[in-house]
Amino acid sequence: HSPGDGAFSRPVLVGEMGRVIRGQRKGPGGIFKSHTTTRKGAAKLRRLDYAERHGYVRGVVKEIIHDPGRGAPLAVVTFRDPYRYKLRHENFIATEGMYTGQFVYCGKKATLNVGNCAPLGSLPEGTVVCNVEGKAGDRGAIARASGNHAIVVSQNPDAGKTRIKLPSGSKKVLCSASRAVIGIVAGGGRIDKPLLKAGRAYHKYKVKRNCWPRVRGVAMNPVEHPHGGGNHQHIGKPSTVRRNTPAGRKVGLIAARRTGRLRGSRKEKDRE
Description:
Layout: H1 22-25, H2 50-54, E1 57-65, E2 74-80, E3 87-93, E4 103-106, E5 117-119, E6 128-130, E7 150-156, E8 161-165, E9 171-175, E10 179-182, H3 198-206, E11 240-241, E12 253-254
Parallel strand pairs: 11-12
Antiparallel strand pairs: 1-2, 1-4, 2-3, 5-10, 6-7, 6-10, 7-8, 8-9
C-alpha cells in the first residue's frame, strides 16, 4: 500500500483524550499541597466548657504575632485552666484595637467590649462580631479574614436562633449558643494597596500554596486545556459547563446561574 491511502494510519476517535489538566492534578495534592510548616497553629476560640456556658473566664493577651500565609494577625491569649494547675495558651484571631496586656473575657456573662467572646444570644442587635461559630462549640468558622466582620441582625429567643449578616452580604440563621468575638478582624485594608510587582505576588503565594503564576487556558495547546489552540487566543465555545461535566472538561464558568456584569442597583432581600 502507498502511504497516502490511509491503510496504516491510526483511526482517530471522536473526543480523544488529551493531557490531564491542571484542575485534575490539584486533586491528589502533591506539589499543590498548602505550605504549613511555618504556620503558628490553628486559630481557634477556647474549648467550650462549663465556665463559658454559665459565667466567664478571663485571659490576658500575651503577644500579637504574624502567622505566615494569613492576612490577619494572631493574638496569643493565656487562660488559667479551670480544672488543673496550669496555663492554657490559645491562638485567637486578633481584633482591631487589641493590645498586649489586655484582659479578654470569654463566656455568657462577658461584657460587651472589643476582643471579648460571648454567645450570639447575649449580644444586642447591631453588634459587630467576627470569628463566629457555625455550630456551637466548633471554635470559630465565619468572618475570620483580615478586616472582615458579621453583624447581629435579629434575635429569636423562643427558637434559640440568631440571624447574622455575613461579610458577603447574605444572611444566615445560627444557633444562639454559637460564640463570636466582638469587633472586626485586624489587618483590614490589606487589599487596598495593589501588589504592583511580580515579586510581591511570588512571596505572597510562596507561604500559601502553589497557585501562582496561573497560565490561562486559552494560552495553552489543545492537548493541555479545553480552551487551548486556535490561531487567535479565543475559547471558541461557551465558557459555561454543567455541574456533572467530566473532570478533564470542567473549566470556565462551572454551573453558572448567570453570566456577565452585575448591572443595576442591588436589591437587599431581607427574608425574615
